[in-house]
Amino acid sequence: MAIVRFDPFGEFAAARGPWIPAVDIYETDAHDVIIKAELPDMTREDIEVTVENDRLTLRGERKLPEGVKDEQFRRVERTYGAFTRSFTLPATVDASKVSAEYKHGVLTVKLPFREEAKPRTINVEVAA
Q: Which residues pair with 47 in a beta bridge?
């Protein structure tokens, strides 16, 4: 029988790996696609949003708190470091009108539809 060392905190250990921020993607009634990414403890300068070749890329880096040394940590469950997320833009999106806002740790990217892709109502005339 093998002897196994008991680790009382082992069940609380978090899996470590690359950081991939969570996103929500939805369409509004105004026919815009919205991407919301959770980017806590970051500044606007830490985040880069690019649109190139029908591809939206979110890039950035969450840094360890300043003034805290590695040996001072008792537990680290949050992931730090660089990240990249890319999304293919649908043909209905007008890439020249993409906008982004960062507020309360959430990056909101607005992708408006092209005018020709928005639904429109056509009046039907009745012939006499």
A: 60
Contact 37, 23 (CB under 8 A): yes
Residue 47, in any domain of the structure: yes
Q: What is the CATH number of the domain that holds 88?
A: 2.60.40.790
Look at the chain and report how many structural domains it folds into: 1
Structure tokens at 17: 């790996």
Q: Which of 19-33, 56-70, 113-127 has the lowest mean pLDDT?
A: 113-127
Beginning with the edge strand found earlier in the chain, give each strand of the sheet holding 106-112 in spatial order.
23-27, 32-38, 106-112, 99-103
Task: Examine the pLDDT at 17 and tell me if it is beyond 50.
Answer: yes
Give the predicted TM-score (pTM) of the model.
Answer: 0.75
Tell me how far CA of residue 5 lies from CA of 24, 29, 40, 105, in angstroms: 42, 57, 36, 40
Range of the domain at 38: 16-64+77-116
Taking CB atoms within 8 Å and a gap of at least 24, the contacts of 13-19 are 14/77, 16/79, 17/79, 18/79, 18/81, 18/83, 19/62, 19/79, 19/80, 19/81, 19/82, 19/83
